[in-house]
Amino acid sequence: MQFAVENPKLVDHTTLEYKGKSDVPDAVRLSGNPSSESWSCEPLPGGKSVRYGLWMGEPGAIALAAYPNDEFFTVIDGRVQLENRDGSILDVRSGETCLIRRNWAGVWRTVEKTHKVFVVIVPDDQG
Question: What value does the mean pLDDT take over residues 39-53?
Answer without folding.
Answer: 71
